[in-house]
Amino acid sequence: MDLFIILGIGLSCLILFSLWSKCYVKQKLPPGPIPFPIVGNIIQLNSKNISTSLSMLAKEYGPVFTLYFGMKPTVVLHGYEAVKEALIDRAEEFSGRGSFPVIDKISQGLGVVFSNGDRWKQTRRFSLMVLRNMGMGRKTVEEQIQEEALCLVDAIKKTNGSPCDPSFLLACVPCNVISSIIFQNRFDYDDKKLYSLIEYFHDNIRILSTHWILLYNTFPILHYLPGSHNELFKNFAGQKEFILEKVKEHQDSLDPNNPRDFIDYFLIRMEKEKHNKKSEFTMENLIITIWDMFSAGIDTTSTTMRYGLLLLLKHPEISARIQEEIERVIGRNRRPCMQDRSRMPYTDAVVHEIQRYVDLVPINMPHEVTKDIWFRGYFIPKGTDILTSLSSVLYDEKEFPNPEKFDPSHFLDKNGNFKKSDYFMPFSAGKRVCVGEGLARMELFLVLTNILQNFTLKSLVDPKEIDTSPSLSGFITVPPSFELSFIPV
């Protein structure tokens, strides 16, 4: 009996010590609203605009605070100083990718966006190397974008000035550019495969920005219930089938001495490491990496372009001023190029202001601390999820006076020259900054200048009546549906 008493006392002490340890760690975490049992703080957030909810909490708890999604603590960083300190000054410690259960179910920790550790480092390093070999940041990719922009102009001309929804046409450009890099081919704009591919990605964005996905990410057990997450998985199955078909075509025609595109480079690396059981270059990793690149390359750029056109419809005086600059610097007959950007400060400022104002990914992709750290006097255990509010940086009142107003002067100095800003973080920052940032910047500038070189944007309603409020503002900010007419210049 004495032995059982001793064991009972020992077990009780261990339980008490465990509870005390958890309480101690909890006390060292940043402050935050008291979580409700089981659900945490989720019911205290506005699912239609989480960014606004975070701003209100930051006013009460400061730039670093803790929220509980379910029973899991997540540290939120709000404002430029806190975000910069984490993502740039202490980049390595905050370089982990936090959990995103609905996507984790798809990616299985593979790819370049949702992977971690050595797998992430190897896949990212390899992807950047291949993209550079394929001409990223050089004339090669610029020429591809220029050619695709001309195809877009031709497609727009076929509308004959009739009202149209620009969503599909704008998505064709980034889709074909990334397709050229990965598959070494593009699609005609009337190709049914292109239409299906773009529809899949547009639908994914809509699903990921719904309240249901917030619930799913908080309570992954919902995986076994009916819900929009099943639509997402069904879309991925269709996308995976398409990718596998392309990979099979490449396997049948592969020349190891003459890689044509991203898939070829990856297949060659797979062959070199086929005897390495720990190799990260597997068929599964190839599929998810391609899916990552398409998701990032199509959705973000096309959504930003679409939102940009809506803002220009709302502000025709800004469109007119861009056209004046295009006429002065480029003219009507020469196609725009990236060298023109340095001589077009106003257009460059408008492109930056569109990205700032749109605030495409308000709370960034989740990060994770890679080890136990102390941050601003608080203890954050290894593996803790980190949310960085990009909205709080892009809408900083000191850096961007009257941030709720769409105003290109946010990026212009008193002399009308383009003005850079450290607060411009639409692509995030640090070690997890978007791999395709350079590509997206090229596409946005060249597509906008090509459109306004050839067309005047005509709204179907009085510009004063246009509502630019997003239709969804969850994972990604989605603009409302709209139509416009492209009137030839």
TrEMBL record:
Its cofactor is heme. GO terms for molecular function: heme binding; iron ion binding; oxidoreductase activity, acting on paired donors, with incorporation or reduction of molecular oxygen, reduced flavin or flavoprotein as one donor, and incorporation of one atom of oxygen. PROSITE patterns: CYTOCHROME_P450. GO terms for biological process: organic acid metabolic process; xenobiotic metabolic process. It is found in: Endoplasmic reticulum membrane; Microsome membrane. The keyword Nucleus does not apply. One of its GO terms (cellular component) is endoplasmic reticulum membrane. InterPro entries: Cyt_P450, Cyt_P450_CS, Cyt_P450_E_grp-I, Cyt_P450_E_grp-I_CYP2D-like, Cyt_P450_sf, Cytochrome_P450_fam2. Heme binds at residue 434. Pfam families: p450. Its EC number is 1.14.14.-. Belongs to the cytochrome P450 family. Cytochromes P450 are a group of heme-thiolate monooxygenases. In liver microsomes, this enzyme is involved in an NADPH-dependent electron transport pathway. It oxidizes a variety of structurally unrelated compounds, including steroids, fatty acids, and xenobiotics. This is Cytochrome P450. It comes from Castor canadensis (American beaver).
